From TrEMBL:
CDD domains: PBP2_Dsm1740 (cd13629)
Keywords: Signal
Family: Belongs to the bacterial solute-binding protein 3 family.
InterPro entries named in the record: Iontro_rcpt_C, SBP_3_CS, Solute-binding_3/MltF_N
Record-linked Pfam families: SBP_bac_3
A cellular component term, taken from the record's GO annotations: membrane
Subcellular location: Cell envelope
SUPFAM superfamilies named among the record's database cross-references: Periplasmic binding protein-like II (SSF53850)
Domain Solute-binding protein family 3/N-terminal: start-end pairs: 41-265
Signal peptide: 1-22
Protein name, per record: Extracellular solute-binding protein family 3
Amino acid sequence: MKRICMMLIMVLALGFAATANAADIDLAKKSTLNSILKSGELRCGIASGYIPFQMTDKKGRIVGFEIDLAREMAKAMGVKFVPVNMEFDGIIPALLTNKIDIITAGMTVNQERNLQINFAEPFMVVGQTVLLNKKLEGKIKSYKDLNKPEYTIVSKLGTTGEQAAKRFIPKAKYKSFDLETDAALEVLNGKADAMIYDLPFNAIFMAEQGEGKLVFLDEPFTYEPLGWGISKGDPDFLNFLGNFLHQIKNDGRYEKLYNKWFESTAWRKNM
């Protein structure tokens, strides 16, 4: 009797294993990785204008730090890199309707977005900083000092800069722009008092156009990891992205690209 029970247990175990294996195979077949490899293209959702992550140069080419990372990813897959440029607030809907395979748009990982999509591990961590009109130098020493009705704050529509401005500086007047450059120029021209935005963009804008006109409060007051977004229910693609990012960060490629876009300004001559 005991022997029969053991045999039944083994049969059931094998049955469960076969079912689980079949489910795993079915899930793998549905992975975005398969559709990418079959099409021979990696469709990356981007929002050109986020310096120096993704930009359009003089010749109309999409370039930037994150663009180069995505190119390396496509190369690792053996497929063509296809940037799909669109407005930032339309990128998640584009992913959910299969118009793109992955979001590579300098997107901050947060809980609200994570309810809709999955994120690979962060490829960089940034935070919100303040670009301040020169007239307020000495008077404003922290983002907290801007929390008054007399000040006008700007940022880019649909970004965590906008969220931070509304959350941390609710008493100030707020105005949004489709492009971060337009928002920064509003402060530069004295039409707004301060811009709340990511450290990389603010640092570059300050270096190039802000001398004598702006004050850069460069200590981030938020923690914001940037990550690539994919559709939910795709562990195979998520696994690939994790391994790719570990590899590129440890074989010198990531450092080389970082130095190209953040430690040097040579690329600016082509913009």
